[in-house]
Amino acid sequence: MHVADAPHLRVLRLLRDEGPVSRAELGDRLELTRPRLLAEVERLVAAGLIAEAGMAASRGGRRSTLVELHPRLRFAAVDLGASSIDIEVTNGRLEPVATYRESADIRSGPRQILQRVNELLHKARTDGAYDRLDAVGIGVPGPVSYRDGVPVSPPIMPGWDRYPVRELLAREHGCPAVVDNDVNIMAIGERHGGVAHSVDDFLFVKIGTGIGCGIHLGGTVYRGVDGCAGDIGHIQVDPNGPVCSCGNTGCLEALFSGFALARDALAVARSGESPALAERLAAYQAALQAAGEAGGEGDDERTEPAVHISARDVAEGAAEGDVTCIRLIREGGRRVGGVLATLVSFSNPSMIVIGGGLALLGHVLLAEIRSVVYRRSLPLATGNLPVVLSELGSRAGVTGAAVLASDTAFEQAS
């Protein structure tokens, strides 16, 4: 029997997703004979994974006992972005009992980043969030060998190639660990508790510092033979375009991503083509100059601090009606939509979910993506195809990491 069909896994996942259930209802829902169900339940109680939770409502005869996931169960969910660390410690129902979020540069390397992850998890323990962890799930912003639990040649993660992330986390916390690509965990999270709940075939597109696609087919994430399925950010869309972080030219990610949008926005701010961005740039420069003068008296050597225009500045400028900001968003949406149109014709999903940091560009971006996908894909594939924004937003990643962590713990309970 495939591990995914094991009765104990079906019991644990149902209790995780739906809460306390009576023994009688468990038998009905999972189509297990009473002796088989009782044997599974007793084994899981003995293992400390489930516990009794009082009496169920009467069904006309003898009242059945409710069972639930054991209240002491704890999972750690970690979502590493290019510039952030998000952590949740959850109970068995994947409800957060502790949350931490802070800025961090993934380029500072695995030792520094994972040390900080461990410090935050140990802080959660000190604060009383858990006595022990049952599993850790982590997503990283680059290709991952899911089988080996290591990043593989990640373009924006210097020093992380083949770094033993899973092994080190498991050893540090004394529990199973699982590592996946950040977009895959976001897709899993959206399937578990977001707009794609109960949708078996959909694409989750993360548009942030990089661009990636979580491919959810037949109720599960499709990772490919080596774990790099969905790396659409490195599909070439303009052979004469800028050099990408992967070393190739004209990749989607090099033309429209958090980094690319900030680059292009700074250029139009400096040229004055965008009045809204030029005004923000001047304000940032004035603030930085004032801060430098206040803190740098007596210094002989002065260097001009870096000034950055962000995607949020572009979103705000578009909301104010700045035509250049709107044009930047639409151009990016057209490029993303063109790549997605090909994927729609190829895989025929029932939904596309847009998430990641640049989802803050909102309905201007979404409308452009929709327009291109609907125009360039086969009518049969788009007749009932919603293209929507993520419901979970920044929590999609930690939600998916918690799902993976719980599945890993449950599978190892066999």
Tell me about this structure.
By secondary structure, the protein is an alpha/beta fold. It folds into three domains: 3-69, Arc Repressor Mutant, subunit A (Orthogonal Bundle), CATH 1.10.10.10; 75-190 and 396-411, ATPase, nucleotide binding domain (Nucleotidyltransferase, domain 5, 2-Layer Sandwich); 197-291 and 307-390, ATPase, nucleotide binding domain (Nucleotidyltransferase, domain 5), CATH 3.30.420. It has 14 helices and 15 strands. It has helices at 7-18, 23-30, 34-46, 110-126, 165-173, 182-193, 252-255, 258-271, 275-295, 311-319, 323-347, 362-376, 379-382, 396-411; strands at residues 21-22, 50-55, 65-69, 75-80, 84-90, 96-103, 135-140, 144-145, 150-151, 177-181, 202-207, 211-217, 220-221, 352-355, 387-389. The strands form four sheets. The chain has a five-stranded mixed beta sheet. A five-stranded mixed beta sheet has the order 13-12-11-14-15, sandwiched between helices. A hairpin with a 3-residue loop joins strand 4 and strand 5 (84-90). Helix 2 packs across helix 3, helix 8 (258-271) runs antiparallel to helix 11 and helix 11 packs across helix 12. The longest helix is centred in the C-terminal third of the chain and has 25 residues, at 323-347. Residues 297-305 have low confidence and may be disordered.
